[in-house]
User: Fold this.
Amino acid sequence: MTLEILTSDSLGDVRHGFFTRRGGASSGVFAGLNCGVGSSDQREIVEINRARVADAMEVAPDHLVGVHQIHSATVVSVTVPLNEKPRADALVTATPGLALSILTADCQPVLFHDSEAGVIGAAHAGWRGALDGPVAVAEDLAQGPPSPSHTDE
Assistant:
């Protein structure tokens, strides 16, 4: 089955996508494109789903970078693929070849792009996180190139 990928014209030529459940390998309560490695879904199936998303974004699976979302204002600047998922709710990068990943259910994904600075960002904005400000922090970080492994809290 083909992935369903929604895009926005407002992000111009930046490769991006809002993925629906369609095209995923998960079944049961996780039926569809479950990319949450922290879920109780089968790990191998989640990896298949993540590989499908990485392929659609034209990056290697280990270059699909995400965070352990905690409903916070914490933003991580990423310069290389991460071995571990830091506890945060937004990511920014100026590194070509990385795809930023945010998972949502009843929260909102927010994407950023500053073509002059060459920075992209993705934030998970739940009600608590929206109040605490990860979107504003990510916008601030997007104003200039991120420093290596920098985390703002």
